[in-house]
Amino acid sequence: MEEKEKNDFRKEDIFAKAVRAGKRTYFFDVRATRANEYFLTITESKRRFNNEQGKFYYEKHKVFLYKEDFEKFKEALTETLDFIEENQPEKEETEDKTTSLDTDINFEDLSSDDETKSEESSEQESDTE
Fold first, then answer.
1. Cβ neighbours of residue 76 under 8 Å, at least 6 residues apart?
2. Domain with 32 in it: what CATH number?
């Protein structure tokens, strides 16, 4: 009976964590070997559409990471993420086309037509004097 329990234990996830990231989902699953040593399975799952069958399916890619490689993997991942955070170029702010126009607007120029006509006539009168 104990042997069956061990086999059942290996088939179950010991720990599982899912991370949804846009159209992808990443699964981090801890499992056990026959020798009862834990290992990590990282699965990337992408939902795709099959045009021929007219159905959705999931494309999966797996990485198996065993105990002897945990420390090297963790160091490399940390170093890589730190590099990205420290060296990521700043995104250039894209200017809105309506605000990027170089216009010199004088609010006095925006007066009504009646005001403009009266100002023009006042200027003409002063020029004649």
1. none
2. 3.10.450.700
